[in-house]
Amino acid sequence: MIDHAHDLELVQTATDRLLNAVGALDDAAVTQSSRLPGWTRGHVLAHLARNADALVNVLEGRPMYVSGEARDADIEDGAPRPLDEQLADLRQSAERFRQATAVPQDWSRTVELRNGVTDQAARVPFRRWVEVELHHVDLGIGYELEDLPAEFVEREIDFLTRRFAGHRDVPGTTVAAEDGRSWTTGGGAQGGPVLVEGPAADLLGWLAGRRDGSALRVKGGALPALPPL
């Protein structure tokens, strides 16, 4: 059962944490490289603002983005802005998302995201939570995967292992956290079964493409190469 109201509270908490952290930066810091290849921190912030607006589009029945080219252009245009403009855009876009989710609606309906992907409307708040939390880490300003809320780590690992389940390029794989939790994924490629063990934060980092998996223990074969998200 997806609890969209609970997830909206988590989005607000994560957004407030992000805004407080970004507010401590300066204009020079915004122009510096993020942890995402080819993107400055300004690119990450512009993407976060536009993603909020894109999810409003999804909830209101419009295409998430006009086009992939328009999405990329909006990020490039917004990246060089000074800190005060970035913060204002983050706050205003977050408020637009909050208002759109406060409107009474059928949360059980199916909505369309990018590239023909569909999902239940009730999962949109979780998707926004993922964007805010992971991109906060991507900024490289002191918020690490180890700082992510435990609920987020567990649910995102669950989401990503489901996403890669049956993937033709991923052998059957068991993902096991040190606290005893485990997930299965892959199964569409030859080889395996592979067991990947380690701290939950490192497992999430590998699944989400944020870490190379070198801190993980692998049995039954090589660490599977995961497709890009």
Plain-language structure description:
The chain has 229 residues and is α+β, with helices and mostly antiparallel strands. Helices cover 49% and strands 13% of the residues. The protein has helices spanning 4-23, 27-31, 41-59, 68-78, 83-102, 124-138, 150-164, 200-207; strands at residues 110-112, 118-120, 171-177, 182-185, 189-198, 217-219. Strands 4-3-5-6 form a four-stranded mixed beta sheet. Helix 7 packs across helix 8. The longest helix has 20 residues, at 4-23.
Broad shape: globular
The share of residues in extended strands comes to 5-15%
Q: What class would the helix/strand composition place it in?
A: alpha+beta
Number of helices: 8
What spatial order of strands do you see in the largest sheet?
4-3-5-6
- Give the N-to-C terminal Cα separation: 24 Å
Assembly status: single chain
Q: Count the beta strands.
A: 6
Sheet having the most strands: 4 strands, mixed
Low-confidence stretches: none
Helix percent band: 40-55%
Q: What is the residue-mean pLDDT, rounded to a whole number? A: 97
